[in-house]
Amino acid sequence: MKPYKITALVPGQYQVCQEDQIIGHWIYPKWHERQSEIKLSDGRVWQVKPKSFWGNATEIFDAHGILAEFKMRWNGSMEIQIFKPEQTYVFYFQLKGFWKTSYRLLNQNRQELCTLIPDVKWNRTHYDLSIEASSEFEQLESKEIILFAMVLCANYHIKSISSAAVYAS
Q1: What is the chain's pLDDT, residue by residue, as a tens digit (169 residues)?
Q2: DSSP for 72-128?
Q3: Which of the 8 DSSP states describes residue 1?
Q4: 97 vs 17, 101, 115, 150, CA distance in Å?
Q5: On the CB side of 75, how many CA atoms lie within 13 Å of its CA?
Q6: Under the phi-then-psi rule, with left for phi > 0, alpha for psi from -120 to 50, and beta for the rest, what region is 12?
Q7: Which one-letter DSSP state was computed for residue 56?
């Protein structure tokens, strides 16, 4: 498998690649924004906005409607829903272990599809990520949207941990 690499170009701008092929960019217009934009290399643009004031659910959509939604679950994991005309697909994003800083993506049958490993540098405001995907993930029809949803989930979780660490100190 060829791993995916998410690189922080500057704070608020990420580039998603697989080997030397750029899949797209994820851009926050301002550092404190909760809304962002995903620009794919084929010219498509997706908007990312929180669904509610509290921010526990976020939607990814384009001009035609909602493509995906992710929301926090009571156990700390996140549920990702991918909306297709014929069916809604559900995935789960969670910590890989209690003390580990890696994550995993599970399908609705709880089969692991990806491992996401952040390269967190606590002395800077951004980080890089790498994603090791299974062959099952590579065969998914909606892998681009799932890929960006995973990045959004990781960002949400890492920011939550960072905020808690700053608040506690």
Answers
A1: 679 999 888 777 889 999 889 999 999 887 656 788 999 999 999 999 988 776 678 899 999 999 999 888 777 788 999 998 888 999 999 988 766 678 999 999 999 999 998 886 666 666 788 999 999 999 998 899 999 998 888 877 776 665 544 444 4
A2: E-TTS-EEEEEE-SS-EEEEEEEESSSS---EEEEETT--EEEEEEEE--TTSS--E
A3: -
A4: 26, 8, 12, 17
A5: 7
A6: left
A7: S
DSSP code at position 161: H
DSSP letter string, 34-51:
S-EEEEETTS-EEEEEES
CA distance 159 to 120: 11
DSSP secondary structure code for residue 53 in this structure: T
Quote the tokens at residue 88: 């809604």
Return the structure tokens found at 145.
Answer: 């949207």
Q: What is the DSSP letter of 54?
A: T
